[in-house]
């Protein structure tokens, strides 16, 4: 264990600089189509929405990120496709849209059939869980650019325009229902790798909290896909939704300007305890980087909260307040 308190920025990912880059990139994107296909949301929510008559079409694009480097170390790639699809589908679910179809982009340094078979296996499983079709994609051989591989994709979904959930209905007193994550999911792996690689552990070593698995296998557990959220939307008065990804609870600012008070948070998975101990990472940095055991959040009136928790295997974790984001006594913002 290092004596230094590691941060995400120390590992090479500065969230504030990323936000500045995004603003520079999108600042000049002012053209807006009119009529059929016109945008219904601004850039910056979980997914983009366009007018398609009675419906809105929703689009999201994302990739697996540097988790692929651990897959390379373990020589096991059959869950990478699940991660790729999950990161996109969960963003669609966070605005109330049902996933319909998917296209993938696989950039390679070189071709091997077994590797490709395993990538296809994961994509197939992810599409099956998400109840959607993979309609195409692109494979690019880029030996001068890619060291190993990169996997990303784009997901198309749909939602009736009067059923879009952006967070504008969130109000004081609403209850927070957190749904557990399966582990680290697919965010924060630049810090994850730095922690492991400076520790006494290798990815092949026994995971200290579960001697039946390895550190690498624990870190490769695929991202949970939260399709049950669609059932909650049908049966409860959902005011807001959040997919907890990179930058942890800071992403909640996308949903509402009101505050979040997590009085009874979900217990973090053992993998987070391992990473925090080995990296000597403080609590604030953990909650600003990782999902910390809660991969998705539903915001709804108190009378619907218990039902939503039962339907998702989640629990009531707090409530909406006037400002800030707090986990117990810890001020996130």
TrEMBL record:
<dbReference type="GO" id="GO:0046084">
    <property type="term" value="P:adenine biosynthetic process"/>
</dbReference>
<dbReference type="GO" id="GO:0005829">
    <property type="term" value="C:cytosol"/>
</dbReference>
<keyword id="KW-0067">ATP-binding</keyword>
<dbReference type="InterPro" id="IPR036921">
    <property type="entry name" value="PurM-like_N_sf"/>
</dbReference>
<keyword id="KW-0436">Ligase</keyword>
<keyword id="KW-0963">Cytoplasm</keyword>
<dbReference type="InterPro" id="IPR010918">
    <property type="entry name" value="PurM-like_C_dom"/>
</dbReference>
<feature type="domain" description="PurM-like C-terminal">
    <location>
        <begin position="173"/>
        <end position="324"/>
    </location>
</feature>
<dbReference type="GO" id="GO:0006189">
    <property type="term" value="P:'de novo' IMP biosynthetic process"/>
</dbReference>
<feature type="domain" description="PurM-like N-terminal">
    <location>
        <begin position="45"/>
        <end position="159"/>
    </location>
</feature>
<dbReference type="GO" id="GO:0004641">
    <property type="term" value="F:phosphoribosylformylglycinamidine cyclo-ligase activity"/>
</dbReference>
<protein>
    <recommendedName>
        <fullName>Phosphoribosylformylglycinamidine cyclo-ligase</fullName>
        <ecNumber>6.3.3.1</ecNumber>
    </recommendedName>
</protein>
<dbReference type="GO" id="GO:0005524">
    <property type="term" value="F:ATP binding"/>
</dbReference>
<keyword id="KW-0547">Nucleotide-binding</keyword>
<dbReference type="Pfam" id="PF00586">
    <property type="entry name" value="AIRS"/>
</dbReference>
<dbReference type="InterPro" id="IPR036676">
    <property type="entry name" value="PurM-like_C_sf"/>
</dbReference>
<keyword id="KW-0658">Purine biosynthesis</keyword>
<comment type="similarity">
    <text>Belongs to the AIR synthase family.</text>
</comment>
<dbReference type="InterPro" id="IPR016188">
    <property type="entry name" value="PurM-like_N"/>
</dbReference>
<dbReference type="Pfam" id="PF02769">
    <property type="entry name" value="AIRS_C"/>
</dbReference>
<comment type="pathway">
    <text>Purine metabolism; IMP biosynthesis via de novo pathway; 5-amino-1-(5-phospho-D-ribosyl)imidazole from N(2)-formyl-N(1)-(5-phospho-D-ribosyl)glycinamide: step 2/2.</text>
</comment>
<dbReference type="InterPro" id="IPR004733">
    <property type="entry name" value="PurM_cligase"/>
</dbReference>
<dbReference type="GO" id="GO:0004637">
    <property type="term" value="F:phosphoribosylamine-glycine ligase activity"/>
</dbReference>
């Amino acid at each position: 264990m290092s004596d230094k308190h590691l941060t995400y920025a120390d590992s090479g990912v500065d969230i504030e600089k990323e936000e500045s880059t995004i603003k520079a990139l999108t600042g000049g994107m002012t053209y807006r189509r009119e009529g059929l296909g016109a945008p219904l949301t601004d850039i910056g929510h979980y997914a983009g929405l366009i007018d398609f008559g009675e419906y809105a079409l929703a689009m999201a694009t994302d990739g697996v990120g540097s988790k692929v480097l651990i897959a390379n170390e373990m020589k096991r790639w059959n869950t990478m496709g699940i991660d790729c699809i999950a990161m996109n589908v969960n963003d669609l679910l966070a605005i109330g849209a049902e996933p319909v179809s998917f296209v993938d982009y696989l950039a390679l340094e070189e071709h091997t059939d077994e590797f490709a078979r395993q990538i296809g296996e994961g994509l197939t499983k992810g599409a099956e869980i998400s109840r959607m079709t993979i309609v195409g994609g692109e494979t690019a051989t880029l030996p001068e650019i890619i060291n190993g591989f990169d996997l990303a994709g784009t997901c198309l979904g749909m939602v009736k325009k009067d059923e879009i959930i952006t967070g504008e209905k969130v109000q004081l007193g609403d209850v927070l229902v957190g749904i557990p994550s399966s582990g680290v999911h697919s965010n924060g792996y630049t810090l994850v790798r730095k922690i492991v690689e400076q520790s006494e552990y290798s990815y092949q070593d026994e995971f200290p909290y579960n001697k039946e698995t390895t550190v690498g296998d624990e870190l490769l557990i695929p991202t949970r896909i939260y399709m049950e959220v669609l059932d909650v939307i049908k049966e409860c008065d959902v005011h807001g939704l959040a997919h907890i990804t990179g930058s942890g609870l800071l992403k909640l600012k996308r949903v509402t300007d009101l505050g979040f008070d997590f009085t009874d948070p979900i217990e973090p998975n053992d993998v987070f305890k391992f990473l925090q101990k080995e990296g000597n990472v403080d609590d604030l940095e953990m909650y600003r980087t990782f999902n910390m055991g809660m991969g998705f959040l539903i915001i709804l009136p108190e009378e619907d909260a218990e039902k939503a928790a039962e339907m998702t295997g989640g629990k009531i974790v707090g409530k909406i307040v006037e400002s800030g984001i707090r986990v117990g006594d810890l001020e996130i913002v």
